[in-house]
Please model this.
Amino acid sequence: MDTTIRRHSFGAGQHRHRNIPTTATSHPNDPIPSEPKDIRLLKVSPQMRAKFNGMNSPRSSGESLSVATDETTDSEAPSTPPTEPADLNEVTDKLDELPIHSPNPSKKRRASTTLATNSDDIRKLLGDGKGTTFLQKYCCGDGCCMVEALPAPAGQPQHVFVDQPDNDAYRFLRLNIGSLTLDTELTKIVDPPEQKMSFSGLRRQSIDEKFPDELKHEHNREAVDMFPPTYMKPHPPYSIFNAPVYGARELTKPGAEKRTFHFDLDVTDYPEEGGVDFKVGGAVGVCPPNDPYVVEDIMDQLGIPRFQRDKPVRMHTPGGRWPTIWGDEQSRTLVTTRREILTWTVDIASAPPTKPMFRLLADHATAPNEKKILTFLASAQGQAAFCDLRTGPHITLQQLLHAFPSSKPPLEHLCGALNQLMPRFYSLSNDPHVSSAREGLAGRRLIETAVTIHETPSF
Model:
């Protein structure tokens, strides 16, 4: 049998032996170095010192090695390559080319919140069901509103910056109008809101003949503050029921950030409706009127004469549900008063201001500086200031009229820029049939609900 002998070879790294050089302070046979002796010291003459001090650029490591006098360095040891001295102008040009970076980036803009307060807002978000639709563009928070911002002020004497109104309501807005002048060109200004109603005169005899239902409804100030108009029907064909407040108490302790109140509403005399009952877990819609003091102040700012505020007028609407809340979409002719319209049909406190609102105020402002600022807020150049206004402190119609006192739009046009005052729904926490069996409440049906109040600063 043949046996094949295989030779295996294993590679091994080769080690190159290096001799330790002999110097004046060390020797291969003597591992302990000795103190250097007879070493020539480097002396710098005054002429050489003046030469070194006159250099503009710092010395490199290569230049430092070139003046050494010790020639006993190991020739085989690697040395640091010398660095050429940099030109000062070249370094300056490179620094200018670097991007400017702020160590403290500005805080990301908070996106604005828009509440769906009526059926038109719901349709705008959900679409008409005919295909893919995009949601309406609101503030995204990435600063795209700064794209068409006004340039920085040039400081030229012919540019006269806009004088901002001097009142507390305007200062509370904290508007940043930048370099806005009376001659600044503004683009992409939104259209004014569409007028959705008009007024006409009405004789007392016409009310008796053409509007017999209005004979049971009074239009004086005290009645308007207490009872809603008969044409408002959030649950057609039923009208709004005036439920007395049987009791109210605060649930939170004094000093709480948000106060919560418990209300007992008396629905003993609520009319019978088919398929309607009050059960735990359900909801009840409350139609609150606007604050009478705020309504009176708005009419003062609009310049409505006092004798016209409670005078019955004929109101014409071209179409839609307004002001009935959930009535049929059709044109209407109703009997109302200007106080009644502001008290029950339009939202003057909850919704933030819109660009069509600013355009309307600008069209009816007589002061040039106020007109320019309002137009600026309705333009593309004022988008950043508009976003800051909507995402900042709570702003109401009353404050805007005080901030820009020269703007007095007609009530007919102003209602087109305001949302419908909608019912506010609250969950029921009890069964009214159970409450009627409690001691002292025999036969009286009460519904219980809790409301949280959030207070915001005002001007």
